[in-house]
Amino acid sequence: MTVPGRRSSTFSRLLRHGFTDPSGAERLLDVPELSELRDDSVLLDALGATADPDLALRGLVRLAEAQAETERQTFTATLLSAKPFRDRLLGVLGASEALADHLARHPRDWESLVTYEAADLHPGVAEFEQGLAEATDADSLRVAYRRCLLAIAARDVCGTTDVAQAAAELADLATATLRAALAIARTAAPADAAMCRLAVIAMGKCGGHELNYVSDVDVIFVGEPVEGADEGKAIQAATRLASHLMRICSETTVEGTIWPVDANLRPEGRNGPLVRTLSSHLAYYQRWAKTWEFQALLKARAVAGDPELGAQYIDAVSPLVWQAAERENFVPDVQKMRRRVVDNIPVAQVERELKLGPGGLRDVEFAVQLLQLVHGRSDAGLHSGTTLDALAALAAGGYVGRADAAQLDEAYRFLRAMEHRIQLYRLRRTHLVPEDEADLRRLGRSLGLRTDPVAELNKEWKRHAAVVRRLHEKLFYRPLLDAVAQLAPGEIRLSPKAAGQRLEALGYDDPAAALRHLEALASGVSRKAAIQRTLLPVLLGWFADSADPDAGLLGFRKVSDALGKTPWYLRLLRDEGAAAENLARVLSAGRLAPDLLLRAPEAVALLGDPEGLRPRDRDHLEQEVVAAVGRAEDAEQAVAAARGVRRRELFRTAAADLIGSYGTEDNPREPDPGALVDRVGEAVTDLNAATIAGALRAAVRAEWGDTLPTRFAVIGMGRFGGHELGYGSDADVLFVHEPREGVDEQEAARAANRVVAEMRRLLQLPTADPPLLIDADLRPEGKSGPLVRTLKSYEAYYRRWSLVWESQALLRAAPMAGDQDLADRFVELVDPLRYPAEGLGEDAVREIRRLKARMESERLPRGADPTLHAKLGRGGLSDVEWTVQLLQMRHGWAEPGLRTTRTREALRAAHAAGLIPTEEAQTLDEAWVLATRVRNAVMLVRGRAGDTFPSDPREVAAVGRYLGYGPGHVGEMVDDYRRITRRARAVVEELFYGA
User: Is the dihedral of CA 410, 411, 414, 416 positive or negative?
Assistant: First the structure.
C-alpha cells in the first residue's frame, strides 16, 4: 500500500527508466491485458531502453488488447521469454506511432518479428518478394508491405543494421513492391500484358539503393511491343499497365497508402508520355536532355518488369551519363545546379531543413554526383548510384581527400539516421527537424543520446551540418591543391588531366593556367604556402560562383605576389571571416575593382574591417586630400597624392557595391537596388569633389601661395551636381570667379584661367591612377565661350541671352569646391532661371519637347538598339530625367521639394505634391535605377564606360550577376530591362509629351 503523500516505488522506477508520464504509465501497467507483465523487471528495463518509453507502453497495451483471447497467452509468453523479439517489438513501438497503429489493426503481425535467422538479419529482394507473395490486390499489398516494413524498422532501431543497410533494405522492399504491383496490374489486364514488354527503371534514392522510410519512388517506364504487335497499341497497353501500377502504390485505401510513384523524371517530365520505347528515350537524351537529367540517370537501375528490356535501357543510357561532362552547356548547367535551392524553402523552415538546408543531405549528394560526372568518364570505378559507395570510391581514387571523405561519410550517416527516425514516427514524408520538446527527446534517444537528449541532439546535428557546409566546397578544390603541391609522396593524387577536367567543369576557361597559379601559390613547405592551401579551397569555390573564375584566380595570385611578404595579408584572409570572401567577390566580378586594387594592393585591408566598406563623407575626404596636398613638394606630387586618395576611395565604393550586389554567406545581397545606386552616386560625387578641391589648392599654391587674386568656385553640373555620378562619369562643371578687392579684372581673369588650365592638366597627368576628366561644355556659349566667367558676366549673359535648355541644365547646378560664399551667390543667381515664377510658358514647354525629340533622333549611336541603350534609349535615363526636370521647371516655384539637383528626390517630391500618380512614379524610379545600375555594371565589368549591355558572353553574364540574375538567366535580364523601360516610356509619353 502506498503511504498518502509519498510516491510509489513503481513511480520512481518509471522515472528512472525514462518515462515522462509515470502516473499514466502506472495506470497502463495495471490494465488486465498486462497482468502477467506488470511486475516483470525485464520488461521495464526493455521499455526504458526505447526511444520513447511512454509511447512504447501505450503501443504495447493497444497490441495486447487487440489479441484474441486464445492468442494473448502465446504473445505474453513470447514477450517475456524471447529477448530479441522483446527488443525488436518494443523498439518499434517506442519509435513509430504509425507501426503501432498497424499492429493494433493487424495483431498477428507481431509474429513477423519473432524469427531470428541469418536470412532474416539481412533480407534482400527475394525475401521481400516472398513476404509480399500472397498479396492479390492493393489492400493486401499494403498490409504485406507494412509487415515487411515492420521488420526493417525493428532491425534499424535495435542496431542490427546501420543506416546504409536500412536504406538498402527499404530500396529492396520497394523493388519487390513494384514487382508485386505490376503483377497485380498484369493480372487485371491480361490482354494488355500479352501485347507489350514493360520495364520499370528506379531512379533517385530507390535507384541508388538508399531509400527513406517515406519517400516518393521515382521511376521511368520503358515499353516495347511483343513480336508481331502494333507499336502504338503496345505502348498504349504499357501505359495502362504503368498507370495501374502507380495507382496501386499511390492511392489511399482503408489500409492507407504505400508511397507515391513519381514518373516526372522521364523525358519531358509530366508533359511527356508516361511510357516510351527504348529508341524514343535515346533520341530524347541524345538531342534534348539537360545536364540535370544525366545527373538523375546516374542512379538509374532496372527493378521490375521485363529484365532484358531493363538491362538494354541501362546499357544504352549509361554511356550518355558519363559523357555529360563533355556537353556544351555542362558548365553553366552545373553553375545553375550549384546555386542553392534554399531560396525556395520558407524562411521559418530553413534552419530545420535536413535535406535542402545549408549543410544538409543535398549538399553531400550533389557534390558526390558532380564529381562522379566529371571524373566517371575516365574512371569506371566511380559508376555507383549509392552516395556513400561513390564517396568511398572518390576517396580511394584520390578525387576527394580521405579525411574529408571520412568526415562527410560520418555526417551523412548521422543526418540520414535523423531523417529516418523523423519519418518513422508517423510514416510521413518530411525532412524538417521537429520543434516540439517531446519529439526532439524521442529523436535524440532513438539515436542513442540518453544523458540530455535534446541538447545533445542539437549539438550533434549542428556539428555535422557545419562539417558538411565547410567541406561541401572544399571537396571540389582541396584535391586540386594536393595535385600541385606534392607534399606527401605516398598519397594518391589527381592527375593533371583529372585536375583540368574538374576545373573545366567548375567554369574555368583555362585549366592549365589555373593549375599554374595554384602551383605558384600553394607549393612548398613555407608557412605562407600552408596558409594558402587552407584558404584556396574556399576561395576557388567563390571564384567558380562568379561569371569569370579565371580572372578571380589570376587577380588573387597578383595580389598575393604583391603582398605575400607582408605579415598581415594572409593573416587577414585567414582570421577575418569576411575578408577572404569579400576579396573573392571583388576579384572575380569584373576589371575595374581588381585594377584599382592592384595599383595599391594594401587596400585589401579595407575588406576585413566592418567599417572599411562604408563610404567616407566629403568633409573627411577633403581634409585628408588638402592635408596631403599641403605636405607635397610641388603641384604634381600634390595632385598625385589627391588622385591616390581618389583611387582608394573608388575601390572602397566599388567593393562595397559589388559585395552588396552579390551578397556573402553572412550578409545577404542588398534588397533595394535604389539604395545601392544612391550610395555609389553620393560616394563618387564626394570623392571627385574632394579631388577637385585638392587640385585647386595645389594649382593655387604652386603660383600664388595661399591666396588667389580672385575668389574662385567650382559648380557641379549634370550628374556631378545631381550627386548621381557613376564609375565612368566625367565631372561636368562651371567655373566662376570674382576679383578680390583692389585686383585688376584682367589680372583676375588671367589668374582664374591659369588655375583652370593647371587643374585640368594635373588631373589628367598619365599615372597609375585613373584620370578625372573635367567637362565645362555646359558653360554659356558652350565650347565657344570662355572657360571662366565672373559672377557679373554670368548674370549679364543669363539675363540677356539664356536659352531654355541652359535653364534646364542649371537644375543640376550645385557648389563643389572653392569659395563657398561665391558658390552660394551663384546658386541664388540661377534659381529664378531654373524655377521660373509661375512656371514655364507654353512656348518654353514646346521648345523643351522639341529639343528632346531631336536628341532622340540624332544622338543615339549608329547601330545601337534603342530598347537597350541605358542613357538615350526608350525609357532610359534621359527619358526619366527630362520628364522630372520638366516638372521641376513648371512647378518648382510653388513646390519647395522640387528644388533639388537629385532626380529621385525630385521624383518623390513630385509624387508627394500630387503631380504624378504613385504607380507612374514607381515605374519611372524603377527604370532610372535599373538603367543607372546597368551603366555602373558595364564599367565595373569591362573597366571602361558603356551605355548598353556588352556583347561578350562572359561580360554580359557578369553584368547579370551584378544585377541579381543567376547563371543562364541573361535572356531573362534583357527581357526584364525591356519590359521595365517600355513601361517607363509609356509614362514619359503621357507626362512629358502630353500624349
Answer: negative
